[in-house]
Design goal:
Strand content of chain B: 5-15%
Strand content of chain A: under 5%
Radius of gyration of chain A: 19 Å
Order of helices and strands of chain A: HHHHHHHHEEH
Number of helices of chain B: 16
Number of helices of chain A: 9
Distance between the termini of chain A: 19 Å
Largest sheet of chain A: 2 strands, antiparallel
Oligomer: heterodimer
Largest interface: A-B, 32 and 36 residues
Order of helices and strands of chain B: HHHHEEEEEHHHHHHHHHHHH
Strand order of the largest sheet of chain B: 1-2-3-4-5
Distance between the termini of chain B: 80 Å
Number of strands of chain A: 2
Shape of chain B: elongated
Radius of gyration of chain B: 32 Å
Number of domains of chain A: 1
Shape of chain A: flat
């Protein structure tokens, strides 16, 4: 129920907004890294969404951006500290891109437009859904880039090991950030196409909507 | 209700921008623009807001500090494990790496092969052009740099990142020698200079392999001995493998003999190669460590096939032993060659002329990549 209302009221997917996709360029060269960054964002976004929504009546309107920043960096730091203890390899491989999630635009956007106006429950669901969306993009990016960029699958975050699927990298260009940029562009084009077609249909027969 | 939530918003303030507003068809940004105020800071800087912010900061800091206290132990252990793995990669063949001590702030790691000390590596961090450069400097039993490895850096891609390249890092091998000068990378002067500085800093520590061994109370093993030991195991494996695959040719002669003959020939080649190269000993050290990683098993397999094709091998075998029998304890160049036996035989397999060891090693010809 909650999920349905959220999905209906939800604005476009973050894919179409092209928000916070900078880690996709830099980090998602392997699936394991993608999972690490997506998990980190999922948890920290949900945590900060709940915090902001719980504190929304206390947060002074004019101070809200500093407070959001404080809360998001707080939750990212917590996730960072815990991940550092549990998955040191992943944290080392992610480098700066894990702490930098604190100022990720998708984080600030969700806090500002949804969490600050809703109860903690829906805010948490919103955070989870946004995190899953983000994770899906990261994972898709990681899968394609790892498979076609290196020819392996499921290597560790440093890019060692893994199953050799292709004898050599079929499209080694994909490993570079520019390759990810092209990949995302292709995806965005496909999404746009589907969306525009859907809108056209809706215009033709408005009853179904 | 939303209006009520914004209790501290004055009545004169514009309505808060909401999601519904943005999505509504008659969305007019001007309607929501903040009213021009003579003193913008007046509404923000009051005791209530400041207090709220301070308390929130303190609460966050408290929770973070507690989390840090509970996770710091595991985190440090994890970091050390990563470094130990890196040290093990530097000393290929070794089975265990430990933190030995922290000398003047530099953590020193030691690598063991079957419980014997095989070498040590120093961890060093220095500022690069953009971020800090973490690296490991590995030393062999002669207290010479055997390898330098960049663990992490954030230098600019394509320029500063060249410091990771083998071309640059291999210059440091054999480092305390007088004759070695380091060429910095053009376009990455700061980055490469930082690496050079770090290595020099580490050299100033003047660590000693034997002192460390005494301190730890363990036996030592030289790279050559370790390689020999590893090769024995490998040849045992590969001969059995070749026996099964190459049955017709191997049956003409005992497989084990040929395999060990091949090893000796390799040793002899390397020895003469060493003599030829003479002055460039530092470079030879590199080949020790680089060829180690190139699966000695593979090349020995090639050797055995080459020998089975060329029956003129036995004389070479008889020639070899006198050359390769220096006492293994001396840590002079003579002990290293057996480790290098992997490269020259590859040359011999190219042209099956495996008659005399002297003719095969024509100066730098036996050293691919070092011409």
């Amino acid at each position: 129920m909650l999920l349905k209302t959220k999905l209906k009221s939800s604005d476009k997917l973050s894919m179409l907004q092209m928000l916070a996709l900078c880690p996709a360029l830099a980090v998602t060269t392997t699936i394991s890294r993608s999972v690490a960054i997506a998990g980190a964002l999922l948890i920290s976004l949900t945590l900060s969404a709940v915090l902001v929504s719980a504190l929304r009546k206390m947060i002074p309107a004019k101070l809200r951006m500093p407070v959001y920043l404080l809360i998001s960096s707080f939750s990212v730091s917590i996730v960072y500290l815990i991940m550092r203890a549990i998955f040191p390899v992943a944290v080392t491989a992610l480098g700066i891109y894990l702490p930098v999630l604190a100022v990720s635009c998708v984080m600030v956007m969700r806090l500002e437009t949804f969490s600050a106006l809703n109860m903690p429950g829906p805010a948490a669901v919103d955070g989870l859904i946004t995190g899953v969306e983000f994770g899906a993009i990261m994972l898709g990016c990681g899968f394609i880039r790892e498979l076609f960029g290196t020819g392996c699958l499921l290597a560790n975050p440093f890019g060692h090991g893994g199953w050799q699927i292709f004898p050599a990298a079929p499209v080694s260009f994909l490993v570079h950030p520019a390759g990810a940029l092209l990949l995302i562009a292709v995806w965005a084009a496909i999404f746009q196409y589907i969306q525009i077609r859907g809108e056209k249909k809706a215009v033709e027969n408005p009853d179904t909507m | 209700m939303k209006e009520k939530d914004r209790g501290n918003l004055g009545d004169k303030q514009p309505r808060r921008l909401t999601e519904a507003d943005i999505n509504s068809p008659e969305f007019d940004p001007d309607e929501f623009a903040p009213a021009p105020s003579r003193n913008a800071a007046a509404g923000v800087l009051n005791i209530k807001n400041s207090l709220f912010f301070v308390i929130l900061c303190a609460a966050c800091a408290l929770v973070l500090a507690l989390t840090n206290v509970f996770t710091i132990f595991a985190a440090e252990k994890g970091q050390k494990d990563i470094r130990k793995d890196a040290v093990l990669e530097l000393f290929s063949g070794c089975d265990r790496a430990e933190l030995y001590d922290t000398v003047e702030g530099f953590p020193v790691y030691v690598a063991y092969y079957k419980g014997k000390l095989a070498g040590y590596a120093v961890y060093v961090v220095d500022d690069g052009y953009i971020g800090s450069i973490e690296m490991l400097v590995a030393f062999d039993e002669d207290n010479k740099v055997s390898q330098v490895k960049i663990l992490s850096h954030s230098e600019s891609e394509g320029l500063g990142s060249k410091i990771e390249g083998n071309k640059f890092l291999s210059q440091f091998v054999g480092m305390p020698d007088e004759g070695i000068s380091i060429d910095l990378i053009s376009g990455a002067t700061v980055s490469s200079h930082s690496v050079k500085d770090s290595v020099e800093q580490v050299l100033k520590l003047e660590l000693d392999f034997l002192t460390i061994a005494e301190d730890l109370d363990v036996e030592t093993i030289s790279a050559a001995e370790m390689e020999e030991d590893l090769q024995k195991e490998d040849t045992a494996d590969t001969t059995s493998a070749t026996e099964t695959t190459k049955v017709p040719s191997v049956t003409t002669r005992p497989g084990d003999d040929t395999a060990f003959g091949g090893d000796n020939v390799g040793g002899a080649n390397a020895n003469t190669g060493d003599a030829n190269n003479g002055s460039a000993q530092g470079e030879n050290d590199t080949t020790v460590y680089e060829t180690e990683t190139e699966e000695p098993g593979e090349t020995t397999a090639e050797e055995t096939t080459a020998e089975t094709q060329a029956p003129s091998e036995p004389p070479a075998v008889t020639n070899a032993p006198p050359v390769t029998t220096p006492p293994p304890v001396t840590t002079s160049p003579e002990t290293k060659p057996p480790a290098e036996s992997t490269t020259p035989p590859e040359e011999t397999t190219g042209d099956v002329d495996t008659t005399a060891p002297d003719e095969e090693t024509t100066g730098g010809g036996g050293w691919p990549g070092w011409g």
